[in-house]
Specification:
This protein is α+β, with helices and mostly antiparallel strands. Among the domains are: 84 residues, Efflux pump adaptor protein, beta barrel domain (Elongation Factor Tu (Ef-tu), domain 3); 69 residues, RNA polymerase II/Efflux pump adaptor protein, barrel-sandwich hybrid domain (OB fold (Dihydrolipoamide Acetyltransferase, E2P), Beta Barrel), CATH 2.40.50.100; 74 residues, Helix Hairpins, CATH 1.10.287. It has three helices and 23 strands. The strands form six sheets. It has a six-stranded antiparallel beta barrel with strand order 3-12-15-14-13-16. A four-stranded antiparallel sheet has the order 4-11-9-6, with no helix packed on it. A hairpin with a 2-residue loop joins β17 and β18. The longest helix is centred in the N-terminal third of the chain and has 33 residues. The protein starts with a helix and ends with a strand. It holds the Pfam family YknX_C. It comes from Rhizobium mongolense subsp. loessense. One of its GO terms (cellular component) is efflux pump complex.
Length: 357
C-alpha cells in the first residue's frame, strides 16, 4: 500500500515543478525585449531633386592680346590671381619707335597743311581771274585740281597720324572687363606680334557650374530652378539654373545645365563637384532615418501594435532631408514606427513603449 502512495506523491511533485517551469518560461517570453519610442509617419511637402555632377568653369572667359606687332614688353603689372577692373593697365610695350613714327607723321601733316594753303591761294586767285582772261582755262583747271589734291593729301596724312596715335595707345594693354586673371603668357622682354595672347581672365569673376544631368529629366528642368552644390569642403552653395543646354551627348545621353552662382561666391575654377537640382514640390510620407534597419541590403522598419509586439515590414525609401527619409511604399500612414533600436529587435518581439507605465 505504501508504494502506490509514494508514486502518487512523486507524480504530484513532478507536475508542480513542470507547471512552475512553464510559467517561468512564459513569463520570460513575455518580458519586453527593449524599451522603444514610437512615431507616426509625417506628411511633408518636399521638392523632388535631380542628381547632377560637373565642372566649375568661368561664366565667360576673356582673352587679352596684343593689337600691334614688333614691339617689346617693357612692364608687366599683374599676375595670375590678380583682380583687375576694366581699363586697368596690364602690360606696357616699348614706345620709342612708335613715338618716332608719330613725330614723323605730325611733320607730314604740317607739310600737307602748307601745301593746301598754297594750293587754296592759287585756286582762289584762279576763280577771281576766271572771267578776266588773265589766266588760261588750262591754268585755272590746274590750280583748282591742285587744291583738291592738296585737300585729299592733308586728309590722308591726318588719317595716318590718327593711326599712329592708335598704335601709341596700343603700347598700353588694358583689361577689357572687370575680372580675375587666370593665366599669363606675357614675358618681360618678349617681342609680341598682333594677336599674341598675353592674359586670360574670368569676366566679372563669375563662375558657373556646368552640371551634367540625365536627358530624361530635361523636360522638367527650366531656368530659375534652385540648385544646391556640394563644395569639396562640405559647405553647400546655392545657385539657380541659368540655361539648359540645347543638345544631348550621343555617348552618355546626358545634357549640360548651366548654373549661375551668387556674385559673392568665388569657388575655384576647374573643380569637379556634385549637387542636385530642385524640381516641383511633391508630398512625401516620411519617418526618421534612424527607424530604417538594413538587412541583406534591404530596408525594413519595425511597427508596434496594441499588443506591444513588433512587426518587421519591408519598405522602399526615396528622398532624404534633415534627418528624415521618404517612404515610397510598404508603410501605412496610420502605423506606429519604432524610431530607433530596430537593429536589436526581431519579428514578433515584445517591447516596452517609452512613456507608458
Amino acid at each position: 500500500m505504501r508504494k502506490p502512495s509514494i508514486s502518487f506523491a512523486v507524480a504530484l511533485v513532478a507536475a508542480a515543478l513542470l507547471l512552475s517551469f512553464r510559467n517561468a518560461v512564459a513569463d520570460q517570453a513575455a518580458a519586453p525585449a527593449l524599451t522603444v519610442s514610437l512615431a507616426a509617419p509625417a506628411q511633408r511637402q518636399w521638392p523632388e531633386t535631380v542628381p547632377a555632377s560637373g565642372w566649375l568653369k568661368p561664366w565667360q572667359e576673356a582673352i587679352v592680346a596684343s593689337e600691334t606687332s614688333g614691339l617689346r614688353i617693357t612692364d608687366i603689372l599683374v599676375d595670375v590671381g590678380s583682380a583687375v577692373v576694366k581699363g586697368q593697365t596690364l602690360v606696357r610695350l616699348s614706345q620709342d619707335s612708335v613715338l618716332a613714327d608719330l613725330r614723323k607723321q605730325e611733320a607730314a601733316v604740317v607739310t600737307a597743311k602748307a601745301n593746301l594753303t598754297k594750293a587754296k591761294a592759287n585756286a582762289d586767285r584762279a576763280r577771281q581771274l576766271r572771267h578776266s582772261g588773265a589766266l588760261s582755262d588750262e591754268k585755272i583747271v590746274e590750280y583748282l585740281a591742285d587744291e583738291q589734291t592738296a585737300t585729299a593729301s592733308l586728309a590722308s596724312e591726318e588719317a595716318a597720324l590718327d593711326s599712329q596715335k592708335i598704335k601709341l595707345a596700343q603700347t598700353t594693354v588694358t583689361a577689357v572687363d572687370d575680372g580675375l586673371i587666370t593665366s599669363r603668357s606675357a614675358e618681360l622682354g618678349a617681342v609680341v606680334s598682333s594677336g599674341t595672347e598675353l592674359f586670360r581672365l574670368v569676366r566679372q569673376q563669375r563662375v558657373e557650374w556646368q552640371a551634367e544631368v540625365s536627358a530624361r529629366y530635361l523636360p522638367r528642368i527650366s531656368e530659375g530652378l534652385n540648385v544646391t552644390i556640394n563644395e569639396p569642403d562640405g559647405h553647400p552653395v546655392q545657385g539657380k539654373v541659368r540655361l539648359v543646354g540645347p543638345s544631348v551627348s550621343t555617348d552618355t545621353s546626358r545634357a549640360i545645365v548651366y548654373v549661375a552662382l551668387p556674385s559673392d561666391v568665388r569657388p575655384r575654377v576647374g573643380l569637379y563637384v556634385t549637387g542636385s537640382i530642385e524640381l516641383e514640390t511633391t508630398p512625401a510620407l516620411t519617418i526618421p532615418e534612424t527607424a530604417i534597419v538594413f538587412r541583406d541590403g534591404i530596408s525594413y522598419v519595425f511597427t508596434a501594435g496594441e499588443d506591444k509586439r513588433v512587426r518587421r515590414i519591408r519598405v522602399e525609401t526615396g528622398r532624404r532631408n534633415n534627418g528624415e527619409v521618404e517612404i515610397v511604399s510598404g508603410l501605412d500612414r496610420s502605423s506606429k514606427v519604432v524610431t530607433s533600436g530596430g537593429a536589436f529587435l526581431s519579428d514578433n518581439d515584445v517591447v516596452k513603449i517609452a512613456g507608458e507605465g
